[in-house]
Design goal:
Elements lengths: L1 E4 L7 H16 L3 E4 L6 H10 L1 E4 L10 E4 L6 H9 L3 E4 L3 H15 L3 E5 L5 H7 L9 E3 L2 H5 L6 E6 L5 H12 L4 E5 L4 H16 L4 E5 L5 H12 L4 E4 L2 H6 L9 E6 L5 H12 L2
Parallel strand pairs: 1-12, 2-3, 4-5, 6-7, 6-8, 8-9, 10-11, 10-12
Helix pairs in contact: 4-5, 8-9
Bound molecules: iron/sulfur cluster (SF4).
Length: 283
């Protein structure tokens, strides 16, 4: 089987930085905690857990004196303050691109803009951004154009995006909000890693004559889900797998396919991409 790799695939800068920090912290501590999964990749999380990573559901589960790494998605200021107050050592590994979205939302909220976030209201990154604003209760989150139509009129609106959103959607939502206020401030806080991976899969399935695409990444990963949507929207058959065992169960999908494109989400480690690529090449 011939495999063609997307130009940008796997760990982005922010995820690599956070994983490196966890590994580094585990050299000096027998256990290191994160609140929630550090990345949306079960195989990589299992590898880190075997080294001593502990994953807490909430900050309440973390014992005093523990070492906590704030994951790349970020965390609200309130949670970080509560951790410090109970004597937890906090290392903040919020991705700098997420930090930029937090800072812009905070600044515009302080300047009395009505802050609208484009993203998933249940995603920890969005919760963390809200938790950095001066008036968290007044921040509104919209997931799409339909929800943007429901925003009422305000004199000044600031639109900030979750880093993993698509630029096309940000532009459409900005167009809808522009007629609902006298002044609209749009912050394009979509990170380059996301758009690079999105462009790379588009290029892969449009210009490399592939019979199908295997997408590698955690099923809970929002950015991998968006890559799947892009591949499907180009009319190319996509097989989304987390590990090589799943790949082996899908032998039917490979029938009559000779040239396979390979893409991976920003939370997929390189070692897993190599393993899966080799398995496909041997088919
Ligand atoms: S996808 Fe972008 S914003 Fe998110 S962790 Fe990676 S580099 Fe940072």
């Amino acid at each position: 089987m011939i495999t063609v790799m997307a130009e940008h695939a796997g760990f982005c800068f922010g995820v690599k930085r956070a994983v490196d920090a966890i590994e580094h912290a585990l050299q000096d501590n027998s256990e290191v905690w994160t609140i929630g999964l550090p990345i949306h990749n079960p195989q990589e999380v299992a590898r880190l857990q075997a080294m001593g990573l502990r994953v807490a559901d909430s900050e309440e589960d973390i014992p005093s004196g523990a070492k906590v790494l704030i994951r790349a998605h970020g965390e609200s200021l309130e949670v970080i303050d509560r951790l410090k107050a109970k004597g937890v050592s906090v290392e903040d590994m919020t991705c700098p691109f997420v930090r930029k979205a937090q800072d812009m939302a905070a600044e515009l909220s302080r300047s009395n803009y009505h802050v609208v976030l484009l993203g998933d209201k249940n995603h920890p990154e969005i919760k963390g951004i809200i938790g950095h604003t001066a008036k968290p209760e007044s921040v509104e989150v919209v997931m799409n154009e339909e929800e943007a139509h429901r925003i009422t009129r305000h004199s000044r609106i600031a639109l900030v995006s979750q880093t993993t959103q698509r630029e096309e959607r940000l532009a459409l939502v900005a167009g809808i909000l522009a007629v609902k206020c006298s002044e609209l401030h749009v912050c394009n806080t979509i990170c380059k890693a996301t758009s690079e991976r999105q462009e790379a899969v588009r290029e892969l399935v449009r210009h490399h004559d592939v019979d199908g695409a295997v997408l590698i990444g955690g099923k809970q990963s929002a950015n991998t889900g968006k890559l799947r949507d892009i591949i499907a929207s180009e009319g190319v058959s996509v097989l989304w797998v987390e590990d090589e065992e799943e790949l082996n169960r899908e032998t039917e999908w490979f029938m009559n396919k000779h040239r396979i494109g390979i893409a991976a989400g920003a939370s997929t480690p390189g070692w897993l991409i190599d393993k899966i690529r080799n398995t496909i090449a041997d088919k």
